[in-house]
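Support reply, case 0932

Customer input (verbatim):
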Amino acid sequence: MNVVDLLLKLLSFESVTPDDAGSLRFIEEYLDGYEAIYVNKEGVKNLFLTKKFSDGPHLCFAGHVDVVPAGDGWETNPFVPVIKDRNIYARGTQDMKSGVAAFVQAVKDTDHFEGRLSVLLTSDEEGEAKYGTQIMLEHLKEIDLLPESCIVAEPTCEHIFGDAVKVGRRGSINGVIEKHGIQGHAAYPEKATNPIHKVAQVLPLMAGVNLDEGDDYFGPSQFVITDIRAGMEVTNVTPGKLKMMFNVRNSTETSLQDVEDFVHRYFNGMNYDLTLSQSAKPFLTPTDRPVVHAIDQSIQKICGITPKHSTAGGTSDARFIAAYHIDVIEFGVINDTIHAPNERTSIAEVEQLYAVFRDTIANFNA
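Our regenerated output:
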């Protein structure tokens, strides 16, 4: 079986989150000779496959076998892969069974490595990710099997294959402000405290404002208002409360405390409540780390281009891996049809991705 055959097989598993649909057991059997460790919880399956070749560094490949629901608008059965014009169509081709197929095949075809190779797979990345990669990492720490370096094969390329490697990700801070007022009759505004009028005074100073200037790897952390609502949808009653929701995709220059201070600066003296939560923390893998150097060299060799180092986009399981002080990067096929009808990737990209991973493994210790 080659990497394209393997991808076609993986795409045939209807593994909608959190159901792996038997794909993890198939991969375990396919990678014979690797020790298998399962950590399953609340219907989520997590598989860690590892093999020690010799003393040396531990390189891990990570990803997910689960996919989002197919949805409407498909021209073919989303779980019966179809090849057309050298493209493969099916749910999960880009996100991210192409990456899984590439690194599983690369690991299977490796006969020698100066250290330990491993594969970490979950069936809960597209969902809440509460019982996925996080709990496997907790277990690996307990048994002293955490890797030093990790490659997550999420789709990262933008225009042509090989043009972008993610060396970090922005964090995500969510907030809700509830501004309390005094409800009243619109004809007697002096007898009420209208929270809309109060918030309107500070809104121009907050909406779309950059909380930092960014740096060479991260864009500025921007205060993005996502929802404002108040009142009873009538014209003669002023509201007693206003609710405003916001999100900050933060760089390493802005913290949860910085966001709280920013809100308080403009709402100081107002009667308000603030709720903040951080669903992901920002991270950056220094570009002089071995895993960054190795993937860069392999992309240049296989693709003939020098990839840019990016931190753009949303979140991935790399955020959990980075929290354990593991050097983690992301590299995969072009990202332009993920979660969409008729999701597809090209055979050429899959074959090149496999070649990049094979070369990365072969030269990781160089």
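We compared this against your earlier run and they match. Two observations from our side: The chain has a mean pLDDT of 96. Residues 140 and 146 are 5 Å apart (CA to CA). Please reopen the case if you see a mismatch on your end.
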